[in-house]
Amino acid sequence: MAAAKEFTYKEVEAHNTKKDLFVVVHDKVYNCSSFVDEHPGGEEVLLDVAGQDATEAFEDVGHSDEAREILEGLHVGNLKRQEGDPKPKSYTQAPKTATTSDGASAGVGLYAIVLIGAGLAFAVYKYLQSQQAQQ
Ligand code: HEM
């Protein structure tokens, strides 16, 4: 049996189009070109990780054993990691950021309401005090 072909990250990076799409999952290199159109999760997500390390993106979704079998069928070689290679690309980063900023703006809104309420109470208190002083 011939030894598995070795790719550097730079070589994998060159395969980043829909017609020529390599991804890395757990340091193995897969040619997904024939599968892009059939992917149940859509072509966009695969194009997003084209030529990159898709380990986290693939694992975050919780793909089935069947998906892993398809993946093995697309295996074309192994990744030869070198110093300075980028880290795996995460899929969940964007939604997480959105949730954080939503929470922050809700907190600011609540803070404003409390401040306005306190201001109003203070104004009423001052008004009543001045009324009493006049009597
Ligand atoms: C790299 C090779 C990949 C293969 C062979 C593959 C294969 C599959 C298969 C067979 C399914 C159907 C459900 C299942 O059996 O788990 C699926 C669903 C899905 N995949 Fe992938 N996938 C790959 C990469 C990715 C990547 C990188 C993402 C990025 C986020 C992704 C996102 C999804 C999503 C969101 C679904 C769910 C679709 C739905 O249920 O509506 N996949 N994939």
Automatic annotation (TrEMBL):
Disordered as annotated region, ranges: 76-104
Domain Cytochrome b5 heme-binding: from-to ranges: 4-80
Primary location class: endoplasmic reticulum
UniProt superkingdom: Eukaryota
TM spans (from-to): 108-128
Gene Ontology CC annotation, any one: endoplasmic reticulum membrane
Keyword flag Thylakoid: no
BP GO annotations: sterol biosynthetic process
Coiled coil start-end: none
Start-end of Polar residues biased regions: 90-103
Keywords: Electron transport, Endoplasmic reticulum, Heme, Iron, Membrane, Metal-binding, Microsome, Transmembrane, Transmembrane helix, Transport
Subcellular location: Endoplasmic reticulum membrane; Microsome membrane
Keyword Endoplasmic reticulum: yes
Membrane topology term: Single-pass membrane protein
Molecular function per GO: heme binding; metal ion binding
Similarity comment text for this entry: Belongs to the cytochrome b5 family.
Protein name: Cytochrome b5
Protein's organism: Westerdykella ornata
Taxonomy of the source species: Eukaryota, Fungi, Dikarya, Ascomycota, Pezizomycotina
